[in-house]
Protein backbone atom coordinates (compact mmCIF):
# COMPACT_ATOMS: atom_id res chain seq x y z
CA UNK A 1 0.00 0.00 0.00
CA UNK A 2 2.87 2.39 0.75
CA UNK A 3 4.23 1.84 -2.75
CA UNK A 4 0.87 2.73 -4.32
CA UNK A 5 0.49 5.77 -2.08
CA UNK A 6 3.88 7.02 -3.27
CA UNK A 7 2.92 6.54 -6.91
CA UNK A 8 -0.41 8.31 -6.49
CA UNK A 9 1.39 11.38 -5.14
CA UNK A 10 2.60 12.00 -8.70
CA UNK A 11 -0.50 10.86 -10.62
CA UNK A 12 -3.87 12.28 -11.41
CA UNK A 13 -6.89 11.03 -13.29
CA UNK A 14 -7.90 12.68 -16.53
CA UNK A 15 -11.24 12.79 -18.23
CA UNK A 16 -10.84 11.85 -21.87
CA UNK A 17 -12.45 14.47 -24.08
CA UNK A 18 -11.42 13.20 -27.50
CA UNK A 19 -11.87 9.72 -28.98
CA UNK A 20 -9.01 8.68 -31.24
CA UNK A 21 -8.96 5.89 -33.79
CA UNK A 22 -5.42 5.87 -35.14
CA UNK A 23 -3.39 2.74 -34.35
CA UNK A 24 -5.02 -0.03 -36.33
CA UNK A 25 -2.51 -2.74 -35.32
CA UNK A 26 -3.30 -2.21 -31.62
CA UNK A 27 -6.38 -0.03 -30.97
CA UNK A 28 -5.76 -0.19 -27.20
CA UNK A 29 -2.79 2.13 -27.75
CA UNK A 30 -5.22 4.86 -28.82
CA UNK A 31 -6.20 5.18 -25.15
CA UNK A 32 -2.67 6.31 -24.33
CA UNK A 33 -2.94 9.09 -26.90
CA UNK A 34 -6.40 10.07 -25.64
CA UNK A 35 -5.15 10.40 -22.07
CA UNK A 36 -2.02 12.30 -23.11
CA UNK A 37 -4.08 14.83 -25.08
CA UNK A 38 -6.57 15.28 -22.24
CA UNK A 39 -3.72 15.75 -19.75
CA UNK A 40 -1.95 18.21 -22.07
CA UNK A 41 1.25 16.16 -21.95
CA UNK A 42 4.46 17.21 -23.63
CA UNK A 43 5.79 13.65 -23.81
CA UNK A 44 4.68 10.04 -23.89
CA UNK A 45 7.44 7.76 -22.63
CA UNK A 46 6.90 4.21 -23.85
CA UNK A 47 8.54 1.10 -25.18
CA UNK A 48 5.47 0.27 -27.25
CA UNK A 49 6.51 -0.06 -30.88
CA UNK A 50 3.20 1.24 -32.24
CA UNK A 51 3.49 4.47 -30.29
CA UNK A 52 7.23 4.86 -30.91
CA UNK A 53 6.61 4.47 -34.64
CA UNK A 54 4.41 7.60 -34.57
CA UNK A 55 7.25 9.74 -33.18
CA UNK A 56 4.79 12.42 -32.15
CA UNK A 57 1.08 13.18 -32.18
CA UNK A 58 -0.53 16.62 -31.89
CA UNK A 59 2.73 18.16 -30.61
CA UNK A 60 3.22 15.38 -28.04
CA UNK A 61 6.64 13.80 -28.51
CA UNK A 62 6.70 10.02 -28.13
CA UNK A 63 10.02 8.68 -26.89
CA UNK A 64 11.53 5.49 -25.59
CA UNK A 65 12.74 5.72 -21.97
CA UNK A 66 16.43 5.81 -22.92
CA UNK A 67 15.86 8.64 -25.41
CA UNK A 68 13.91 10.63 -22.83
CA UNK A 69 16.67 10.20 -20.25
CA UNK A 70 19.23 11.37 -22.80
CA UNK A 71 17.08 14.42 -23.56
CA UNK A 72 16.64 15.50 -19.95
CA UNK A 73 20.33 14.99 -19.13
CA UNK A 74 21.44 17.50 -21.79
Report on this structure:
The chain has 74 residues and is α+β, with helices and mostly antiparallel strands. The chain has one domain (2-72). Helix content is 41%, strand content 12%. The chain has 4 helices and 3 strands, in the order ααβαββα. Strands 1-3-2 form a 3-stranded mixed beta sheet. The termini are far apart. Residues 22-50 form the PIN domain. It comes from marine sediment metagenome. InterPro entries: PIN_dom (IPR002716), PIN_toxin-like (IPR002850).
SSE diagram, text form:
Elements (H helix, E strand, L loop, with lengths): L1 H7 L21 H9 L4 E3 L3 H6 L1 E2 L2 E4 L1 H8 L2
Parallel strand pairs: 1-3
Antiparallel strand pairs: 2-3
Please give the order of strands in the largest beta sheet: 1-3-2
Largest sheet: 3 strands, mixed
From the alpha carbons, calculate the radius of gyration and give it in angstroms.
14 Å
Question: What is the chain-wise order of helices and strands?
Answer: HHEHEEH
Strand element count: 3
Structural class: alpha+beta
End-to-end gap: 35 Å
Count helical runs: 4
Low-pLDDT runs? none
Anisotropy-based shape = globular
Strand percentage:
5-15%
Number of domains: 1
